[in-house]
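Protocol step 4 of 6: structure prediction from sequence.
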Amino acid sequence: MPPFLNVAAYAPPRVGMLAVGLVSEVFGAPPAGLPRFDFALCTDRPGRVPTDLGVPLTVEHGLDRLAAADLVLALPWADFRTPPPSPVLDALRTAHARGALVGSHCVGAFALAAAGLLDGLRATTHWRFAELLASRHPSVTVERDALYVDEGRIITGAGAAAGFDLCLHLLRREYGAAAANAVARDLVLPPHRDGGQAQYVTAPVPEDCEDERLSGVLAWARAHLHEPLPVAELARRALMSRRSFARRFAAATGTTPHAWVLGLRLGRAEELLETTDLPVEEIARLVGYGSAAVLREQFVRRRGVPPRTYRRTFARTEAAGAEARRVSPEQALDAP
């Protein structure tokens, strides 16, 4: 199957305006070079829908559009403690049974849980309501600290702005790292955030001179992936002891310097595999691995496939997506 093109987001009464803007930015107007998604907001009864800010929203599409989409997203809403009406739950189940990807972020997970789509699966939601989701739906394994949880055709995301993480993950998974990076760049967002919700439960790290030094070191590391980048060197550039640097780094990013550099190297390798014809040996050198064998070992361990298989997979995905984009709606209707 080609990647998803038909995207529908369920906007219940008192839907979160942040969530509406978020999915509309990602799928409603992607940057040049990405497919034109057929994106629509849907609701129980088309017309004026109240939002959590009190500003009404005009939604033209009903639940039939939701049930027919390739990707269905359940948006968070203020009254999430009350399950959506039965027709909404039926539409979510119909879409899933037909093979659609079904996702949610923040308290939108409560709609998927009410529809029974999370039974026996892992899921996440806003950390503040994770206990409530777990108590109401004991058959769901709630990952309280995750930014998003991918269970194949069911994907759930954490609260508020973590919806961007969810959407970028979906783009990365279905269209490749280059597509996700292009959208992130357009929205002035990091293409991938390390760590989980735990780093946001307490007060954020104060923005003082040490944080400025840390930001500078991270920017320097991104530009020098071809170099070894030991923690001692990063700490030296931040004018900190190694122990202080590691502690400050974990507080700011939710992960370790080693894990952060590893994720950066693999993400850059993905993008080069998708967008260039460079030999794997050259890509390994550019992202800081001593040989193609080392890159292959890390790629298989972290991504499940070797680099060359990954490259072939996304070449086929891009070809299928391009073919789908060449078919007009009229041709699609006339197809057998």
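Step 5 (inspection) to follow. The two ends are 16 Å apart (CA to CA).
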